[in-house]
Specification:
Number of domains: 2
Distance between the termini: 11 Å
Strand content: 15-25%
Strand order of the largest sheet: 1-2-3-4
Largest sheet: 4 strands, antiparallel
Helix content: 40-55%
Shape: elongated
Number of strands: 7
Low-confidence stretches: none
Order of helices and strands: EHHHEEEEEEH
């Protein structure tokens, strides 16, 4: 196993605005629905205030939730020539590149040991990861 990492990336706030894990999506949806239920109890369905506050709630939830997730989880991805190490909070997972496959659809979803995983990293990191995966698939030895 190689000791020198090729790349280290801490997920940025901007990345979390457009790349989301299922947990983050569920959290945003739940917070919005809870807030909307409270708004619905406060305002009549025909009032323009309900619409205004609903839009404001959506903007607040979609901008604040990724920041809270980032502070709480602090996702960090470390790419080695033979593996990807993912640290989320206190939990750390190591995925051998030989066991990873790119899923087609969204550029940040992969399959590891039959499980779908979301790599919430920037485009440059994902490009390097894809190059490494292609090299492993073809039997190239990148160092």
């Amino acid at each position: 196993m190689a000791k020198q990492p090729l790349m280290v990336e801490r997920t940025s706030y901007l990345t979390l605005l457009y790349r989301k894990s299922p947990l983050l999506r569920a959290l945003e949806t739940g917070l919005f629905l809870a807030g909307f239920a409270l708004l619905f109890l406060r305002f009549s369905p025909e009032s323009p205030e309900l619409l205004r506050w609903s839009v404001a709630l959506a903007v607040i939830v979609l901008t604040v939730t990724p920041a809270v997730y980032l502070l709480a989880v602090m996702p960090t991805y470390t790419l080695y020539p033979d593996r990807l190490v993912v640290r989320k909070g206190r939990r750390e997972e190591e995925w051998p590149l030989a066991e990873m496959e790119k899923e087609y659809g969204l550029p940040y979803i992969y399959t590891v040991r039959g499980r779908r995983v979301h790599v919430l990293a920037g485009n440059r990191f994902l490009q390097e990861l894809n190059v490494r995966l292609e090299g492993v698939k073809r039997g190239w030895n990148h160092q």
